[in-house]
Every structure is written in structure tokens, then in C-alpha cells.
What does this fold into?
Amino acid sequence: MTTSPNSPDAGWVLEASVRAAPAADPCWNEQLDSLRSVAQYDGKTQTWCARLGVLDLAGLQKLQILFDAARTYGTEVRLAPAPVPAAWNGRVFTDPELNVVLAAQADQGRALGQLPLA
It folds into this structure.
């Protein structure tokens, strides 16, 4: 079954938004190597992003690397549920109540009576 990203049945992912902490060269490079192993860098926002669709062993290891970077280097890590990205082909979290909240958030700014894009 295929669902729209705005559908209450679409599921969600846990998104980590990560900002590297300033550091001298050796620590800076270690920090970036650590982040690079689990996240992708976005040059526009100058942040790293990691997404998890399930908290299995690999997901927990990814979170542990992010939290270790925060503890060791002062890296800022923020976690938030997010709608499933269009290109996502992995497993997703499902919680009907949270799915409804995320669908409503994704629909903000839509004019009254305007249908969401499929």
C-alpha cells in the first residue's frame, strides 16, 4: 500500500539535526569523521542530518555515535519526529496519534479549502 507523506497512515522517521562544535584541527577532524559515519552534511544549513526509521541495533548504534560526539566534542544534537521523506525506502515508525500530528504540521500554511498535493 502506498500512502501520501501527509496521510495519517504514512508513518514517521526520527530525524537528528546536528551542528558540529568549533574545535582545533585534530578534534575538528575527529568530530567530522564521527558525524560523517552516520549523517549527511547539508551545506545550505551547515548542519548534519541523520534519520532513523526503526530503533534496531543499527539505529541505536547511530544514536550512540551522535550522543558520544555531543559528550566528547560538544556537538549539538536535536531529535524530532518528522514525516517520511519522499526518497525514503526504509522502515518507518508507526503511531497513529503522532502520524496525525505530523500530517497536520506538514499541512500548515495551506489555504482553507485548498487540497494537499498528492
About this structure: Confidence is low (pLDDT under 50) at residues 1-6. Residues 57-73 form the longest helix (17 residues). The chain is about 35% helix and 20% strand.
